[in-house]
Structure formats: structure tokens, C-alpha cells
Amino acid sequence: MINRPRLLADLQSLVRKLEADLQERIDSTEVPEVGQRLRGEYDQAKRADRTAQTFNQWAEDYKTQVAVAWVLSATFARFLEDNGLVSPPRLSGLGDDLQRARDEYELYFSLHPTETDREYLLGVFGELAKLPGAKEVFGEGNLLWQHPTWLSGDGAKAILAFFQTIDPGTGSMVHDFADPGWDTRFLGDLYQDLSEAARKKYALLQTPIFVEQFVLDRTLDPAIDEFGLDAVRMIDPACGSGHFLLGSFERLLDRWLRKEPGTNVEELARRALEAVHGVDVNPYAVAIARFRLLLAAMKATNQKELRNARAFPLHVACGDSLLHGEGSQLVLGDWAPMAHHFASEDIAALNQILRAGHYHAVVANPPYIVPRDSALNGEYRRRYRACHRQYSLAVPFMERIFQLAVPGSYTGQITANSFMKREFGKKLIEVFFPQVDLTHVIDTSGAYIPGHGTPTVILFGRNRAPVAKTIRTVMGIRGEPSTPEDPTQGLVWTAILDQVDVKDSESEFVSVADSQRDLFHQHPWSIGGGGASELKEWLDQSKTKALSEVIQEVGFGAVTREDDVFLVGQDSALRKEVAPQYIRPLVAGEEIRDWAIPETTGALWPYEKSSLTVKESQTLSRFLWLWKRQLSSRVAYGLSQLERGLAWFEYSMFFTKRFQTPLSIAFAFVATHNHFVLDRGGKVFNRSAPVIKLPATATEDDHLALLGLLNSSTACFWMKQVFFPKGGDQVGSEGARIRKTLWDERYEFAGTGLQDFPVVSQKPLDKAKKLDQLAAQLTQHSPASILQGKIKDLEQTLETSRKTWEKTLSQMIALQEELDWECYSLYKLVDKPLTYEQAVLPLDLGQRAFEIILARKIAAGKLQIAWFERHRSTPITELPAHWPDDYKQLIERRIHLIETDKNIGLIEQPEYKRRWNTEPWESQLERALQNWLLNRLESYFDLDGRMNDAGTPTAKLPEPALISTAKLADFARQDPDFIQVGELYTHNPAFDVLTLVNTLVESESVPLLPVLRYKATGQRKRQDWQQTWALQRQEDAIDARTQHPKDHPDYLDTTAANRLKAQQIGDIPVPPKYTSTDFLKPHYWKLRGKLDVPKERWVSFPHCAGPDGQPVIAWAGYNHLQLALALSAYFVYIKEDVGGHEDPRLIPLLAGLIELLPWLHQWHNDLDPAYGLKMGDYIESFIQDEARQLNLTPDDLTAWQPPKTPTRRRK
Q1: Is the pLDDT of residue 844 over 90?
Q2: Which of 202, 736, 1016, 1029 has the fewest Cβ atoms within 10 angstroms?
Q3: Where are the domains of the chain?
Q4: In CATH terms, is domain 203-530 a member of 3.40.50.150?
């Protein structure tokens, strides 16, 4: 039997080996035809705008597909062999069949002695393709035939060895594919998880059988009844591994068997298969779907051998359903046939299958991802005009599903629910949905659906104009409380099944109603069950005005569209010599918490301070130049940065009028709860922290009064009915989404939706003012703030501040509780005020009324909740004895109301109450102490004082130099403040200074050499970046000619320059972004990120330690020339004073100089007044001279690889 987990893990390893083999052959000079053919295919796709990827990116994806094609083909063959469906066995086998397969192998090579294992496997697959029914699986449609020589003979040998591996402990085959029931579910596992890269790119996700059955019950079954078994056709345009196709085949065959019991079953199976159609963009998904359908047909017709089987029709094709085939009038965009197709795409089959208005049942579980390839994104946007803003693929697939359907036919899909509330769904809801008959909206976001970590909804509809005035709506109340042993018996899923056809039913998990259709033609949707929708309506009717009527505007202050580049932090910018006036505190949404902004990130600020107009700075432009192409290509309103007339180095959007008055209310765009804060000026708020601007005449009290409403639990409830849940707790091992903790679910709070927030005339001003003051006090007593001052008697100062900080937090918790209850009165949810009129008593977490109710339910065994554990609080079931009697009575009244009043009971839940999930003092202190120590060590390198506010040089070194960490530790030992803080940080008065320095420096260092920074995948991406930089330099050289006087022989006007750039350079590609797996160490990724932005404090030089044996570093604040001079001096020191002319350290040191050389030529090759030389030329000459003495070429130096670390032998 098949061991599914082990098979998956082992095949994943095999795929990685084959990917490495394929990658090596792309660049191999021994088989240049491989790379040439791939390059030709890529160039065609690029010219046709089928991809905007670089060649390396495109080949990276393609090689995965080809590797998987080989692995799956062998897996299919082995399954057929082990189950006796083909003979003789030629790959492997059980028992005597293994020797028979080896005999076949020997026989082949006796006849073909010059061939390799690759030809042997191709021969096996070619013979299988000749068998009835197997052509679609093993024939020319299989991707491996598109590039049959790409894999090497050694790669093929690895495949054969894998499938012939014997377990030495048992003497049996490691992988046994024999299965009497021919169960192919294991192929679904392979489809989803065989390649992590493919899973992410294609959003690979299996549709569980119970969901498939539910959808087919309400689409294919009624379609058969209405249109007739003889006529009906179904399609899944995103078929994946074929779950919907298999389910449809089984249903159709069952219907035929019941209708014509006397007809030959093979004929009935053929008819059933003729009605089943599928398309998928992923080649190996199509291979799996075809294979599974073939086996299902053979099993249904009781055929035991493939050679005797009927040649069943398999209408499953590889291609992009959104691009190929026919369009229809339903599509809001422009439709034209695709002129280009990839080698993996069968264009004739696609055009035959993807016919508009052709299918009676259209079902799908489409991918939920945002299309990242800009070329594809633009093509989808042209064809489907409901594609709006940063749309997910759920949007165009929604249209395509209806487009493929016969008029009046049935559609069903399980899809991401993000379109319901996120702004990209607006056109879909308000323009497209009114054209079609949506019949059911079923909230499945709380159901346990294995593999579905994204909140989902099931939609049913018919391809016709709307008929009824209502839509059957299943509304979620609460999610699955724990992982069910059997997902089909999950509490939420069972409730959906039991109630979907019962109007006005309500259970603990869902409620069902026939909702007015008009509500589903308005964005956003609000489908909360259990009275949530009614309460939201009450709040809306309670308003005096909508928020939009009392404010001037709400929206982003600034949108960079490349935060990784601009939000580098103040210290990182200063290291790169960016002037302080071009750095400004920038607030991200995650920094806004609990009435405060405790920390900000320094951001690059390319604007003039007073006029707010864009202003270029040489140091700023130099720093940003590495990402010039990336920044120039940022798109807003469908146009690039340059097409919009903006400078390449400025923000994508900068709303100057939102910075003309100092007061703003900012809020977290993505958070679990509502976090609003009053800012009094001087900061920039990016996309993740939109701002609310009141009229210029509004006072600070006006702002604070509104802030009180917005930070209330009432506002949190309203917002969560309006905005999109991004997902919270993930429980279980199958990636299913369990809403065990609704309070941990993150929402996207957009400014557009917030404009409808109901504002009442009276507001909780006094409490809001006090909370604002307490929040400032809390920040002032944080460890980070204390450590900014003098550190005399630091330990005592910190202890005093800790007590003040904790007291302040307790006061805020209590005051927020009073504000929440005051708002219930303001919104007329309670008849009498239930606030405490005396001085507010400090509260600890766990002491609020709703928390006492939770604790009592836990004690009674009625509830399981992680609220107290996650928030480091203690549940109490009795009121604290030290509370005054009047306060106890008030809390008891609150508890009674929560338990008896439906509306108050809905709001007084953890998901709407402030979490106060504040970072503990102890971890704040550890982080602050570490940062102080790092800053202190870095100060020993600060030659010009740029890293401190006073501008005072603090360097211990007279000039730029490479030094060992032992030398750095010597500086630290002589620094009393460093020793004092180090003792607190290590909790050890006798700590080892060198050990601490090494630990701190390692965490903030990145190697100069790319080979020491990246894995192989990252090095390939680096090559793409270097190619882009080379083209940017050519572009700059041409642009520079436009600055010459007109009588200069090299002068070009702008038109001529643009024409020359088009001729000589063409379109400069946008290089690929990095991922965490591209870096050799996790902290390199942390310091660099997806755009490789340097934020480290030090540059490291592994394998180049000096005589003391300690790591050697240089300050990351040195410019390229300073670093090159320091590096060359260290090179001479190693060569002349330490290791001699054959020292192995010399090669990586010279390679480091080569790495700096392009930047020296670019930025430091004017005549240097100090040296009287062009320093780029000088360093290049130095490299050449030293390389000759080492008998090496520059290519030899750049090809240097670090020595392999010896591995320990296992005992």
C-alpha cells in the first residue's frame, strides 16, 4: 500500500535533485542547445506579453514543471506496473517484478549501448503512450516531451534508482504502489505539495470531496434534470488534480447506468467522459487529472490491463482559461484570441474546450492569489474589466465561470471571500453581479475545510438575468471551535448542510435568510449572522451624521509602493550618507496600538520640508539608484511612475494637503481590532496607516472626541461587519482555517468603508483626553525611552519606570472599559448609563465584566478559550474583594446585561474588546538594551558624527579600516557605560565581553561577497539585478548627453536620446524579488529583505580572519571607496605581514574588491583631489596586478567558492 506522507516527502527530495540537474544544463556549454531552445521560447513569450519575468525567473518556474513532469510520469508508470495494469514491468516492481524490470533495462542497453537512462525512460513512456487511453497521459501532451533532452542521463538514473530502492530493514520496496481499489487520492497530495514554489505560484489547493459533492449536488445534478443527460456538459476551468472532474464522471456514469442498464458499460463510460471537461494552467495538474480520469474509467468498466482498454476521451487541457478560447458578452473587457501559446499549452484543445455559452454546469475552486506577473495582470485586466485595483484571480474567474455557461445553466464555486469587502471587489459586485442570477451566498469562512487557510464563500448562480428579489444567504455566527476528527462532520459544515434549505433557521454557528438581492449589488457585503446584521443596522440608524460628513477626508498620507526601499530606518539611511532633512519619521499601521505610536521607522523623504515639493538629493538618489528600474515601474491608476510625470525616486502617491495641518487621526489599516491615534504633526503615514483629516478649523478636542468613538468596542463591532477578515488563528496540520479565536482575526480597515461610520452628536471627550495623556505617559516610561537618556543608576531608574508603566497600563485598561460602556449609552443600546462616576479604579487584564463571564463559563466546562493564556492574564470568577461595593454592583449589572441583552451580548465579546496585547516590559527591556549596545558598538566607527544628533565624531579608529571583533571588544572593555548596560543585558556582572560582541555583531552583519550571502537561487537573482544595473548605467550615460551644451559633439535632445535608448537598450527588465530561502542565513534575510536593501551595521568577511582568529568586519557606513581602500589595505596586510603571497584569504579579499569595482567606476571615478587619481581606475589596476601575481584572472576570482565545511560522521 502507498505510504502517502513518506512518498510525498521522498518525491519532494527527488524533485529538488532534478531541478538542480535541469538548472545546471541551462547554462552548460556541453549542451548549448538546451539553453538556446529555452531562451527562444522565453523570448517569444516576452514579445507576446505573456510574461514580464526575467529569463532566470521564467526558467526557474519552468524547470520545476519539467522536473515534476518526469517524476509524475514515472509515478504513473510505477502505479500501473504495481497494479498489473501493464506488463512487463520496466521501471521496478514488487517481488520478482523488480528483477524482470532490471532484465528489461539490461536488454535495452544491449541494443542501445550508447544511450543513457534518459532515453530508456523516454522509451518506457513512449511505449505506454501507444496503449489505448494512455496517449493523453504519456503522449506528446506531456510536458517532458517539449524538452526531452533537458534532463541529463544522471538525472534519469536518479529517477530509476528512486523507484527501485529497497528498504534494507525489510527487504521490500520502499514505495509500494499496489492498491486493490486503485485509490489515486495520493496524487492529490502530490499535486498540492510536490513543489513548494509551484504551490505558491499557482495557489495549488485541492477541493475536499465533501465540498465537491455539495457543489455538484446543486449544479450538475439539476443541470442533468433540466437539460437532459444526453445534452449536458460540465467544465471546471481551474480543474487542478481533477476532484470536480472525477465526481462529475461518477455521477454521469451512475445516471447513464440507471437510464440504460442494458447498454455496454464502456459505451456509457465514454458518454460520461465526453461530458466532462477541465482546464488548468499547471501542466502537472493536468497530467494528474488525466491519469485519475483514465483509471476511474478503467475501474468503472472493470478493465484490468491498459493494452485491452478502450481509448477513452479525456477532455482535459493545459492552458490559461482566462486567456484562451472564446469570450462572451458577459465579459466587461475586450476579448481577442491569444496569438501566443507556451509549449505546454495545446491551443487546439483549449479552443475546442473553452467555448462561451457551451456548458450546462460550470464549477470551480479557482486560485485566490493576486497575479504578480505584470504582463499577465495587465492582460487579465484588459479582458475582464471587473478586475479592479489589486484584484485576486477570484474576480476574472467569477466572470469566466458565467461566460462558459449555457444561458440558464448552473454555476457553483468555492472562492476567496475577500472580494466581498475589499475594494477590488467593488466592480464585481456593483457592475457584474446585477447581470447574473446569483442564487446562494454561503459563508464558509468558519468551516473546517482542509487546505483552505483563506476565508471562503460558496456561490451558486445561474447564467441568466436575476429572477427572484432575494438570495438565499447562509450567514456565519461563529467558527469551528476545534479541529474535527472528520472534516465532513465539522460543526459549522454540518450546520450549513442542515440549514441551507431551511429559511430563517438559526443555530450556534450559522443563520439562514432570504436576503434582499439589492444588498448584494452594493459594496461591501455584510453577512454576519446571529443578529449581527440587525445590530449594525441599528447603529447606522442611531447616527447623527456619517463620518464623511464631519471630516474633510480620509485616506493614505503617502504610498511608496515599495516600502522595503523607502522604510529603511533612520540609522540605515544615515549610514548611506543620506542627509537628515531627507529622513522623516514614518508610521506604519502595525506601529499604531492602544492610543499611541510608541515607535516610528525612519523613512526616506524626497521632498522639500516647507513646500512639500519633490526635491532630488545626490546622496538620496545614489542610495535609491539600485532600485531605479523597480521604482520607475511602480504602477498607479494604470500608469507607471514615469508615465504619470513623477520622478523615479519620489513616492508613488503623496497627498500634500493631508500634511498642511498638523493634527491627524491615524489608524491601523490591518489589525485584529480598531486602533486609532491622534498625531500632532511631523510624521508621515504610509499605506498601512491611513489618516483622517478634519476641517482646518477643528480643534484638538474635536479630534479627541471623535477619537473616543472610533476607539470604542461599538466602533470595533461596526467595522468588523463592514471590513474584510484576512484570517487569524490557524489550527490543525492541514492548513484549514479554524476560527477558534475570533479576536485574533486580522481585518483590513479601509478608509473608503470607514466613511459610512455612524457618528453620534455626544462623544466621550473627557475619557478620550485622559486616555491620550496616559498613552503618552506609557511611552515616556518605556525602556526604549529611558535608555535614550543618561544611564547613571540605570538599574534603579528602570525599576522605577517599570512600576509607573504598569500602573499607567492598568489605568488605561479601566478607562477604556468606561469609554466602551459610555458609548453603549451614546448609541442608545442601553437605557441608563452604566459607567462609574467615581475615580476610575485601575484594572488588570482578566477583571473586565466580559472576562469574568468567560472565566465562569470555563470553570463550568461550557467554554474553551485561549484568551487568558494568550494575553498573559488570570481568569477570575468572583469580583475582587478590594473593589468598592458600588463598583461591584455596577459590574454585576454589566454582567447581567451582557447575559440578557442580545445587542450588548454581541459587542461584549473578545473579538470587539480591546486586547491590550502589549509587549511585556521584560521583552521591551531586553530589546532596548540590545539596541543600546549595538548603537554603542557602532559609535566606535562613526568618523563624521552622522549617527548622533549632536553630529560629534565618536570613532575609535582614525580612518576606515577592517578590524577584528577582538579589537572591537577591546574598545568596549574600556567603555564603562557599555559594561554597565552589558551586565544588565546578560544578567551577569562578569560577562565575557568578546563573546557578547561577537554575538551582537554577527546578528547585524552581512558578507560583502554574494557567494557568502545567497544560496544558488539567490545568486541567480543577483545576476538578474546586475544585468539591470548594467543597463541602467547605459541609460544614464545616454541621458547625460542631454545635459551637454547644444554645441557639444555628444549632445542629444530628449527625443534623440529616447530613440537611442530604445535601439541600444530596449526595455530594462524589473529584476525578481528575493525570498527568505534565497539567503544562506535567516538574519541575512531579516537585514536585507525581498529587495536586498542593506540595513546591516557591519560588512563581514568570512574566511578572512586575522592573526587573532576572530571575525573581521568593516562599518556598513563606509562608502564604496572607503570600503575599497580599507579592504585593499587589509589585503596588503595579510599578504605582507601575515600569510604571504599564497595565503588563501587573498582570493576572497580580491573578489570583494571586484564586487565593489562597478560602483567605484560609477560614483568615485572623478579625479580624486587627495590622491590625484581616478580611484575606480586605480583599484581596478590594483586588482589586475595582484591577480597576475596569484596567476588568476578576474573570472577566477569571481568564481571563488568558500571551502566546504567538513561534516561530522554519524556514529
Answers
A1: yes
A2: 1016
A3: 4-179, 203-530, 548-763, 768-907
A4: yes
